[in-house]
Amino acid sequence: MPELWLAWLAILGGFIGLVWSADRFVGGSAALASNFGLSKLIIGLTIVSLGTSAPEIVVSISASLKDAGELAIGNALGSNLANIGLVLAITALIAPMPIQRHLLTQEIPILLAVTLLAGVVLWDASVSLTEGIVLLATIVPLLYFMARSKKAHPEEAEEIDEEEIPELNNQTATLWFIIGLGTLVASSEILVWGAKLVATDFGISPLIIGLTIVAVGTSLPELAASVMSAIRGHHEMALGNIIGSNIFNILTVMAVPGLISPPVMESLVFSRDYLAMAGITLLLSACIVIDYLLRNKSQDGPGHARLGRRIGTLLLIAYIGYYGVLFT
Q: Which class in CATH covers the domain with range 4-326?
């Protein structure tokens, strides 16, 4: 197909646009919210947390409007797989990440519950309108619970309070918000067009493209941010941010196709792809809990639990193994 080179160029350009615009969009949004008096805690729990999933959300909307809901679902599942098996794994190999107690009492249980909810939704290899509404509506009580928990335990809110919120006046913040949002939408349109063309040319489903090329591409912002933080020695928030991103990927990115154009997919979306995501999520959770408990019983004492190189290597092997299954 003569247009194939143009499709690959569109995918590359779409990724670059998504990475650049997501940062500008979140920065402008956070600055506006701060200027209007919204607390850093709320900004961190909403704009910053949801902002890490902005590329996936916009791509999901664009794909669903083009009747490519499979690509959107693949993007959600594949991004969660990439976040754990690629982003966290590589970051852990560069610099071990501390495991905070609140991860065990809040984020991990929420992630496991949301992952189970995703399994219920994908059991019949479809996402209905009702299921999309349930997924999206779950965000409201979740944010309420997290906000109350952080206020009740201020020491656990320090991570969010330290989030960098640009100091911009309203005019500049509004400008970056509009530019960021517009570029996000345009980049997602270009990316989805290229991805559909490549899928058609190679005779594979949009689900596979979403699970691989698009998923890894939309996880690039998390990978870049986590690796740079680790190199600079500021990697305390990487683990919590990735877990939060995976939670919102399921509740927002997966909900969008059900709301716009409910997709019916091949059964492998549950038996292969969802179970792979659930499996690597359980593996990460088990590693975090076991390491935390063992370290607390050792001479190191509380606060020395780490997501280190051994766990990072294990997660990376699991991720590579999934690709082996996917293309066998």
A: mainly alpha
